[in-house]
Amino acid sequence: MPGQRIPATILTGFLGAGKTTLLKRILSQPAGRTFGILVNDFGEINIDAALIVEKGAERISLSNGCVCCTIQADLVSAIASMLDNTPGLDHILIEASGVSRSVPIADTLQCEELAQRICLGGVFCLVDAEGFPLLDYVSTELAIDQITGADMVLLNKTDLVSPADLDTLLHRLNDLIPGMRIVPAVDADIPMELLFDLPESATAPAHRHDEDSHHGHDHVCGPGCGHDHHHHHHTDAFESWSWQSDQPVDEIRLRKALRSLPASLLRAKGVLRVRGEAGTRLLEYQQVGRRSRLTAADALSQAGSAVVAIGRRESLDETAFRALFDACVMEPAG
Ligand SMILES: Nc1nc2c(ncn2[C@@H]2O[C@H](COP(=O)(O)OP(=O)(O)OP(=O)(O)O)[C@@H](O)[C@H]2O)c(=O)[nH]1
Protein backbone atom coordinates (compact mmCIF):
# COMPACT_ATOMS: atom_id res chain seq x y z
CA MET A 1 0.00 0.00 0.00
CA PRO A 2 1.58 3.37 -0.96
CA GLY A 3 2.64 5.42 2.03
CA GLN A 4 2.61 2.44 4.40
CA ARG A 5 5.51 2.44 6.85
CA ILE A 6 7.75 -0.63 6.81
CA PRO A 7 8.59 -2.17 10.19
CA ALA A 8 12.26 -2.26 11.18
CA THR A 9 13.34 -4.81 13.77
CA ILE A 10 16.57 -4.37 15.74
CA LEU A 11 18.61 -7.38 16.87
CA THR A 12 20.94 -6.36 19.63
CA GLY A 13 23.04 -8.01 22.33
CA PHE A 14 26.63 -8.25 23.49
CA LEU A 15 29.48 -9.64 21.35
CA GLY A 16 28.87 -13.24 20.32
CA ALA A 17 25.45 -13.60 21.97
CA GLY A 18 23.83 -15.02 18.82
CA LYS A 19 22.51 -12.09 16.73
CA THR A 20 23.75 -13.46 13.38
CA THR A 21 22.43 -16.90 14.33
CA LEU A 22 18.99 -15.36 14.87
CA LEU A 23 19.20 -13.28 11.69
CA LYS A 24 20.01 -16.38 9.63
CA ARG A 25 17.16 -18.26 11.27
CA ILE A 26 14.71 -15.48 10.39
CA LEU A 27 15.94 -15.41 6.78
CA SER A 28 15.55 -19.18 6.52
CA GLN A 29 11.86 -18.93 7.52
CA PRO A 30 10.70 -15.83 5.64
CA ALA A 31 6.98 -16.74 5.66
CA GLY A 32 6.50 -14.78 2.44
CA ARG A 33 8.23 -11.63 3.70
CA THR A 34 10.85 -9.81 1.64
CA PHE A 35 13.54 -8.64 4.03
CA GLY A 36 16.06 -5.87 3.78
CA ILE A 37 18.96 -6.46 6.14
CA LEU A 38 21.58 -4.13 7.56
CA VAL A 39 24.48 -5.77 9.30
CA ASN A 40 26.73 -3.70 11.50
CA ASP A 41 30.11 -5.04 12.53
CA PHE A 42 32.29 -3.03 14.89
CA GLY A 43 35.43 -4.27 13.12
CA GLU A 44 36.99 -2.97 9.93
CA ILE A 45 35.94 -6.04 7.93
CA ASN A 46 32.29 -7.13 8.02
CA ILE A 47 32.63 -10.85 8.70
CA ASP A 48 28.94 -11.20 9.60
CA ALA A 49 27.89 -9.96 6.17
CA ALA A 50 30.22 -12.53 4.56
CA LEU A 51 28.71 -15.30 6.67
CA ILE A 52 25.12 -14.61 5.71
CA VAL A 53 24.60 -16.61 2.54
CA GLU A 54 20.82 -16.92 2.85
CA LYS A 55 19.22 -15.70 -0.35
CA GLY A 56 16.24 -13.48 -1.01
CA ALA A 57 17.15 -10.47 1.09
CA GLU A 58 18.59 -7.12 0.11
CA ARG A 59 21.56 -6.35 2.31
CA ILE A 60 23.84 -3.52 3.28
CA SER A 61 26.89 -3.97 5.43
CA LEU A 62 27.97 -1.25 7.86
CA SER A 63 31.49 -1.76 9.18
CA ASN A 64 34.16 -0.06 11.21
CA GLY A 65 31.96 1.61 13.78
CA CYS A 66 28.86 1.32 15.83
CA VAL A 67 25.43 2.21 14.40
CA CYS A 68 24.26 3.60 17.72
CA CYS A 69 26.87 6.38 17.75
CA THR A 70 29.95 6.60 15.50
CA ILE A 71 28.18 5.64 12.24
CA GLN A 72 24.60 6.58 13.15
CA ALA A 73 24.24 8.79 10.06
CA ASP A 74 25.41 5.89 7.84
CA LEU A 75 22.54 3.81 9.21
CA VAL A 76 20.00 6.46 8.22
CA SER A 77 21.37 6.89 4.69
CA ALA A 78 21.71 3.11 4.22
CA ILE A 79 18.06 2.57 5.16
CA ALA A 80 16.94 5.46 2.95
CA SER A 81 18.85 4.10 -0.05
CA MET A 82 17.58 0.58 0.59
CA LEU A 83 14.00 1.88 0.60
CA ASP A 84 14.66 3.91 -2.58
CA ASN A 85 16.27 1.01 -4.43
CA THR A 86 14.19 -1.95 -3.29
CA PRO A 87 10.50 -1.70 -4.06
CA GLY A 88 8.37 -4.35 -2.37
CA LEU A 89 10.31 -4.62 0.89
CA ASP A 90 8.12 -5.94 3.72
CA HIS A 91 10.47 -5.71 6.64
CA ILE A 92 13.87 -4.36 7.61
CA LEU A 93 16.16 -6.26 9.99
CA ILE A 94 19.06 -4.47 11.62
CA GLU A 95 21.77 -6.51 13.28
CA ALA A 96 23.54 -4.09 15.59
CA SER A 97 27.19 -4.57 16.47
CA GLY A 98 27.84 -6.36 19.76
CA VAL A 99 28.96 -3.08 21.34
CA SER A 100 25.92 -1.01 20.26
CA ARG A 101 23.49 0.41 22.75
CA SER A 102 19.84 -0.31 21.87
CA VAL A 103 17.94 2.88 22.57
CA PRO A 104 19.98 5.25 20.35
CA ILE A 105 19.37 2.93 17.39
CA ALA A 106 15.64 2.84 18.06
CA ASP A 107 15.67 6.63 18.37
CA THR A 108 17.64 7.01 15.13
CA LEU A 109 14.99 5.04 13.26
CA GLN A 110 12.48 7.69 14.28
CA CYS A 111 14.47 10.60 12.91
CA GLU A 112 12.89 13.07 10.52
CA GLU A 113 14.38 11.45 7.40
CA LEU A 114 12.86 8.04 8.16
CA ALA A 115 9.80 8.74 10.31
CA GLN A 116 7.33 8.64 7.40
CA ARG A 117 8.91 5.59 5.80
CA ILE A 118 9.55 3.06 8.59
CA CYS A 119 8.22 2.20 12.03
CA LEU A 120 9.87 0.34 14.89
CA GLY A 121 9.02 -3.36 14.66
CA GLY A 122 10.69 -4.28 17.96
CA VAL A 123 14.03 -4.47 19.70
CA PHE A 124 15.23 -7.96 20.59
CA CYS A 125 18.22 -8.51 22.77
CA LEU A 126 20.23 -11.72 22.72
CA VAL A 127 21.98 -12.65 25.96
CA ASP A 128 24.66 -15.35 26.13
CA ALA A 129 23.62 -17.48 29.12
CA GLU A 130 27.15 -18.78 29.55
CA GLY A 131 29.07 -15.60 28.78
CA PHE A 132 26.98 -12.91 30.50
CA PRO A 133 27.94 -13.79 34.11
CA LEU A 134 31.64 -13.79 33.11
CA LEU A 135 31.75 -10.25 31.68
CA ASP A 136 33.80 -7.54 33.35
CA TYR A 137 32.18 -4.43 34.82
CA VAL A 138 32.25 -2.26 31.67
CA SER A 139 30.98 -5.04 29.40
CA THR A 140 28.26 -6.00 31.91
CA GLU A 141 27.12 -2.37 32.07
CA LEU A 142 26.82 -2.30 28.27
CA ALA A 143 25.06 -5.69 28.12
CA ILE A 144 22.54 -4.50 30.72
CA ASP A 145 21.98 -1.30 28.77
CA GLN A 146 21.24 -3.41 25.67
CA ILE A 147 18.78 -5.51 27.69
CA THR A 148 16.92 -2.60 29.27
CA GLY A 149 16.35 -0.99 25.86
CA ALA A 150 14.77 -4.15 24.44
CA ASP A 151 11.20 -5.35 24.09
CA MET A 152 12.19 -8.94 24.72
CA VAL A 153 15.28 -10.88 25.76
CA LEU A 154 16.34 -14.13 24.10
CA LEU A 155 18.39 -15.89 26.73
CA ASN A 156 20.49 -17.84 24.25
CA LYS A 157 23.07 -20.66 24.60
CA THR A 158 21.13 -22.31 27.41
CA ASP A 159 22.72 -25.58 26.23
CA LEU A 160 26.02 -24.38 27.71
CA VAL A 161 24.81 -23.87 31.29
CA SER A 162 23.45 -26.11 34.03
CA PRO A 163 19.76 -25.83 35.01
CA ALA A 164 20.85 -24.34 38.37
CA ASP A 165 23.01 -21.64 36.69
CA LEU A 166 20.21 -20.89 34.23
CA ASP A 167 17.79 -20.46 37.11
CA THR A 168 20.20 -18.10 38.91
CA LEU A 169 20.63 -16.02 35.76
CA LEU A 170 16.88 -15.85 35.13
CA HIS A 171 16.39 -14.56 38.68
CA ARG A 172 19.18 -12.01 38.23
CA LEU A 173 17.71 -10.72 34.96
CA ASN A 174 14.21 -10.62 36.45
CA ASP A 175 15.53 -8.56 39.37
CA LEU A 176 17.40 -6.22 37.03
CA ILE A 177 14.48 -5.59 34.69
CA PRO A 178 11.22 -6.56 36.37
CA GLY A 179 8.52 -7.39 33.84
CA MET A 180 10.89 -8.00 30.92
CA ARG A 181 9.86 -10.96 28.78
CA ILE A 182 12.75 -13.44 28.77
CA VAL A 183 12.67 -16.42 26.38
CA PRO A 184 15.33 -19.13 26.88
CA ALA A 185 16.72 -20.53 23.61
CA VAL A 186 19.37 -22.69 21.98
CA ASP A 187 20.81 -21.44 18.68
CA ALA A 188 18.29 -18.58 18.84
CA ASP A 189 15.55 -21.08 18.03
CA ILE A 190 12.34 -19.34 19.03
CA PRO A 191 8.90 -19.21 17.38
CA MET A 192 8.99 -16.45 14.76
CA GLU A 193 5.60 -15.16 15.95
CA LEU A 194 7.37 -13.88 19.07
CA LEU A 195 9.37 -11.52 16.86
CA PHE A 196 6.83 -10.48 14.31
CA ASP A 197 3.51 -10.43 16.15
CA LEU A 198 4.57 -8.08 18.92
CA PRO A 199 1.61 -6.13 20.28
CA GLU A 200 2.06 -2.32 20.22
CA SER A 201 1.77 -2.29 24.02
CA ALA A 202 4.87 -4.51 24.28
CA THR A 203 7.19 -1.83 22.91
CA ALA A 204 9.79 -0.95 25.53
CA PRO A 205 8.98 2.32 27.34
CA ALA A 206 12.57 3.50 26.80
CA HIS A 207 11.89 4.09 23.14
CA ARG A 208 8.08 4.14 22.87
CA HIS A 209 7.20 7.19 20.79
CA ASP A 210 3.98 8.95 20.17
CA GLU A 211 3.26 11.33 17.33
CA ASP A 212 4.25 14.43 19.30
CA SER A 213 7.32 13.10 20.97
CA HIS A 214 10.68 12.66 19.30
CA HIS A 215 12.92 12.79 22.39
CA GLY A 216 14.94 15.47 20.64
CA HIS A 217 16.12 12.91 18.08
CA ASP A 218 14.32 14.13 14.97
CA HIS A 219 17.73 15.04 13.68
CA VAL A 220 20.78 12.86 13.26
CA CYS A 221 23.80 14.82 14.34
CA GLY A 222 26.76 15.26 12.08
CA PRO A 223 29.68 17.58 11.58
CA GLY A 224 28.61 21.21 11.54
CA CYS A 225 25.13 20.66 13.01
CA GLY A 226 25.89 23.02 15.89
CA HIS A 227 25.08 20.68 18.76
CA ASP A 228 27.37 20.19 21.68
CA HIS A 229 28.55 16.62 21.18
CA HIS A 230 30.27 14.31 23.59
CA HIS A 231 33.42 13.16 21.94
CA HIS A 232 33.78 10.02 24.01
CA HIS A 233 31.76 7.09 22.77
CA HIS A 234 31.07 4.01 24.83
CA THR A 235 32.87 2.12 22.04
CA ASP A 236 36.10 3.78 23.19
CA ALA A 237 36.21 1.02 25.80
CA PHE A 238 36.57 -1.56 23.02
CA GLU A 239 39.01 -2.04 20.19
CA SER A 240 39.06 -4.23 17.09
CA TRP A 241 41.95 -5.70 15.13
CA SER A 242 41.80 -7.28 11.73
CA TRP A 243 44.05 -9.49 9.64
CA GLN A 244 43.80 -10.50 6.00
CA SER A 245 45.79 -12.62 3.56
CA ASP A 246 45.47 -13.71 -0.07
CA GLN A 247 47.43 -16.89 0.58
CA PRO A 248 46.01 -20.06 2.17
CA VAL A 249 46.88 -20.81 5.78
CA ASP A 250 48.24 -24.08 7.11
CA GLU A 251 45.58 -25.93 9.12
CA ILE A 252 47.88 -27.35 11.80
CA ARG A 253 49.61 -24.01 12.40
CA LEU A 254 46.23 -22.25 12.46
CA ARG A 255 44.75 -24.57 15.08
CA LYS A 256 47.86 -24.07 17.23
CA ALA A 257 47.71 -20.28 16.79
CA LEU A 258 44.06 -20.16 17.83
CA ARG A 259 44.93 -21.99 21.05
CA SER A 260 47.49 -19.31 21.90
CA LEU A 261 45.22 -16.27 21.53
CA PRO A 262 45.14 -14.26 24.76
CA ALA A 263 42.40 -14.95 27.30
CA SER A 264 41.51 -11.24 27.27
CA LEU A 265 39.99 -11.58 23.79
CA LEU A 266 36.22 -11.05 23.94
CA ARG A 267 35.36 -12.06 20.40
CA ALA A 268 37.02 -13.16 17.17
CA LYS A 269 35.59 -14.40 13.92
CA GLY A 270 36.64 -14.92 10.38
CA VAL A 271 36.66 -16.91 7.21
CA LEU A 272 39.91 -18.69 6.44
CA ARG A 273 41.15 -20.42 3.32
CA VAL A 274 42.90 -23.38 4.87
CA ARG A 275 45.20 -26.03 3.41
CA GLY A 276 45.40 -29.33 5.26
CA GLU A 277 45.04 -33.07 4.85
CA ALA A 278 41.56 -32.61 3.36
CA GLY A 279 42.90 -30.27 0.67
CA THR A 280 42.16 -26.55 0.47
CA ARG A 281 38.84 -25.44 1.88
CA LEU A 282 37.13 -22.50 3.52
CA LEU A 283 36.57 -22.62 7.26
CA GLU A 284 34.45 -20.33 9.40
CA TYR A 285 36.17 -19.34 12.63
CA GLN A 286 34.14 -18.29 15.65
CA GLN A 287 35.50 -17.43 19.08
CA VAL A 288 33.42 -16.15 21.98
CA GLY A 289 35.44 -15.78 25.16
CA ARG A 290 37.49 -18.97 25.51
CA ARG A 291 35.16 -21.04 23.33
CA SER A 292 36.28 -21.43 19.73
CA ARG A 293 34.93 -23.25 16.72
CA LEU A 294 36.25 -23.96 13.20
CA THR A 295 33.62 -25.30 10.83
CA ALA A 296 33.45 -26.01 7.10
CA ALA A 297 32.12 -23.04 5.20
CA ASP A 298 31.42 -24.63 1.82
CA ALA A 299 28.61 -22.24 1.01
CA LEU A 300 30.85 -19.18 1.26
CA SER A 301 32.74 -17.72 -1.63
CA GLN A 302 35.86 -15.89 -0.60
CA ALA A 303 39.27 -15.80 -2.22
CA GLY A 304 41.49 -15.26 0.82
CA SER A 305 41.29 -15.17 4.61
CA ALA A 306 40.06 -12.49 6.98
CA VAL A 307 39.86 -12.42 10.77
CA VAL A 308 38.51 -9.75 13.11
CA ALA A 309 39.15 -9.73 16.85
CA ILE A 310 37.52 -7.52 19.47
CA GLY A 311 38.58 -6.90 23.04
CA ARG A 312 38.69 -4.23 25.69
CA ARG A 313 40.93 -1.32 24.63
CA GLU A 314 44.62 -2.05 25.05
CA SER A 315 43.94 -5.67 25.98
CA LEU A 316 45.65 -7.12 22.91
CA ASP A 317 49.06 -6.58 21.38
CA GLU A 318 48.26 -5.89 17.71
CA THR A 319 51.78 -6.77 16.51
CA ALA A 320 51.64 -10.13 18.29
CA PHE A 321 48.10 -10.75 16.94
CA ARG A 322 49.24 -10.14 13.36
CA ALA A 323 52.43 -12.20 13.81
CA LEU A 324 50.39 -15.14 15.11
CA PHE A 325 48.27 -15.26 11.95
CA ASP A 326 51.14 -14.31 9.59
CA ALA A 327 53.01 -17.37 10.84
CA CYS A 328 50.14 -19.57 9.57
CA VAL A 329 50.34 -18.35 5.98
CA MET A 330 51.74 -20.83 3.47
CA GLU A 331 54.40 -19.73 1.03
CA PRO A 332 53.05 -19.18 -2.48
CA ALA A 333 53.80 -22.22 -4.67
CA GLY A 334 57.02 -21.39 -6.60
N1 LIG B 1 26.51 -23.70 21.96
C1 LIG B 1 25.83 -22.69 21.39
N2 LIG B 1 26.45 -21.92 20.49
C2 LIG B 1 25.72 -20.92 19.94
C3 LIG B 1 24.35 -20.68 20.24
N3 LIG B 1 23.92 -19.62 19.53
C4 LIG B 1 24.97 -19.20 18.79
N4 LIG B 1 26.06 -19.99 19.04
C5 LIG B 1 27.41 -19.85 18.47
O1 LIG B 1 28.02 -18.68 19.04
C6 LIG B 1 28.89 -18.07 18.10
C7 LIG B 1 28.53 -16.60 17.94
O2 LIG B 1 27.22 -16.52 17.39
P1 LIG B 1 26.76 -15.28 16.49
O3 LIG B 1 25.36 -15.53 16.08
O4 LIG B 1 27.77 -15.04 15.42
O5 LIG B 1 26.86 -14.13 17.55
P2 LIG B 1 26.67 -12.56 17.29
O6 LIG B 1 25.90 -12.02 18.42
O7 LIG B 1 26.13 -12.32 15.92
O8 LIG B 1 28.19 -12.07 17.35
P3 LIG B 1 28.74 -10.55 17.06
O9 LIG B 1 27.98 -10.02 15.88
O10 LIG B 1 30.18 -10.74 16.77
O11 LIG B 1 28.52 -9.77 18.28
C8 LIG B 1 28.76 -18.90 16.79
O12 LIG B 1 29.78 -19.85 16.75
C9 LIG B 1 27.40 -19.57 16.97
O13 LIG B 1 27.29 -20.78 16.24
C10 LIG B 1 23.72 -21.54 21.22
O14 LIG B 1 22.56 -21.40 21.58
N5 LIG B 1 24.52 -22.52 21.74
UniProtKB/TrEMBL annotation:
Domain CobW C-terminal, residue spans: 238-329
Key words of the record: Chaperone, Hydrolase, Nucleotide-binding
Recorded coiled-coil stretches: none
Cross-referenced PANTHER family: COBW-RELATED (PTHR13748)
Function: Zinc chaperone that directly transfers zinc cofactor to target proteins, thereby activating them. Zinc is transferred from the CXCC motif in the GTPase domain to the zinc binding site in target proteins in a process requiring GTP hydrolysis.
Sequence similarity: Belongs to the SIMIBI class G3E GTPase family. ZNG1 subfamily.
The protein, known as: GTP-binding protein
Source organism (scientific name): Ectorhizobium quercum
